[in-house]
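User: My instructor asked us to take a sequence, write out its structure as tokens, and then describe one feature of it. I'm not sure where to start. Here is the sequence I was given:
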Amino acid sequence: MSRGPDALERLGQEDLQNIVLDLLSTLQIHPAARLLRSTGDGKNLFGDLLQLNSAVNSGEFDFDRIKPLVKSALADIPDDILIWIHVYRAVTESTPPPRPISSSIQQTPWSQNTSGFVNSSEFRQNVDPILKLELERLYVGLPKFHQTFFADVPDLDMVSEAVFRRCIEGDNPLFKEGWSGWPAGARENDLLAQPRTPLQGSTGKRSLDIGFVNSDITYKPDSEDSRYRWSHILVAGELKSNPKADTSSIAWIDLARYAREVLAAQDTRRFVLGFTLCGSHMRVWEFDRLGGIASEQFDINKKDGGLQFVTAILGFLRMNDEVLGFDPTIVMSNGERYIEIERDGQTARLIIDKVMKRSSCIVGRATTCWKAHWEEDPWTPLVIKDSWQYTDRDEEGILVQEATEKGVINIARYYHHETVRVHGADDDVQNNVRKGLDITKATNYRPGRAMLPAASASIVSRKQLSSGAGVKRPSSETDAALPPSKRSVSTSPVKASVKALSNRRWRAA
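Assistant: Let's start with the prediction itself. The structure tokens for your sequence are:
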């Protein structure tokens, strides 16, 4: 059939029905359909597509509801993300509204992200489509990115200028109309260490092009456990020889995959910094619970770009843990990690024993649960729950408190909850992590573009504590793609404006 914009309008009802049924059958056999969550109480999106297929086959279906999906699938250059957005809209509109349920259930918005994999080996061909859905759009070309994420490194600009000045001086300068010895046609096998060994700590096999690790990590070739782990990575990098690879479908999504692994492996990480270097074109990135944002592109073989390159590398090397994205509200002392909460006007210390669960996603609620105990009472177990939440949602901690007061069984007994605060402010992505960076200034920002279900947020905070099984604590996040003020990220497929980028972090025990 013709791919013109009016092609569908010229089709008869039976022809249109057959095309839709063929499309739905194709979507059903796609691996993503069995990995993405259902819009209702079903196991996954596959079940929703079956229901939609039955509705279409009945002949009593309003095909205007599904035409946007068909048009996006028949586009000359199909957009995978847009197709799955229209899939969710189609199955949602074809499903009758659910019966009223308790408010505690309604507080968890509908979201789709990579934490929803079930019994998956996380092969790349399965992860990438959902990760693209999760991130929806990565915003690049943001002005003031350097000032936002490098300003807290002491004397960085002064030191960088001094180092770069040394690079351009002398009889054989390291930099002269570009970096000396820069490979013109770099091939991965020629430049990267071989063989490429996957890092430990991930479900699927994942290797990293380049990264920064802690200085106290010692590589021991003869050790039984000689490989680096994702828990070692401070800054991740993606290298491409082709400058044209600086796109969302190539370098950007590769780096996002690394960021997801780092966030999953490091339970105190609020956000992750990284960089892409495609040919000599570089960007610096930040990934948080709202998504990913990046600096303007610069050419490291130009003088101004060469200085920016030196500044970025020195900045990564000299950043403290908090600037790198680690949670300053979790303190390490004498080999123990702890958090402090304020209850009844007094400060109490909770010792973290171990991680119970950490969501493996970038965008979303990013819930983490720790087993813990009071400093003065090591025999009574507690659970700390740390999550991002939209500010326009009722606090989950209050709901758990009500459940405890009403004697609801099979949930943790409530003890305390609070919004996580960092440096005296509610911990959120937009204001606390991203420090108010305006994504509408991004070079690839498009007004009116609908956001993905998992990427529309409002503000999220974190903190809540439960005796015997549930403790939440305030948390913070520093990027805008899902949560800014509470750490308990939730998403709504309907709300999708820039103003909705507001979440905060909370904790409960």
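For the description part of your assignment, you could build on this observation: The longest strand covers residues 377-390. Try explaining in your own words what that tells you about the chain.
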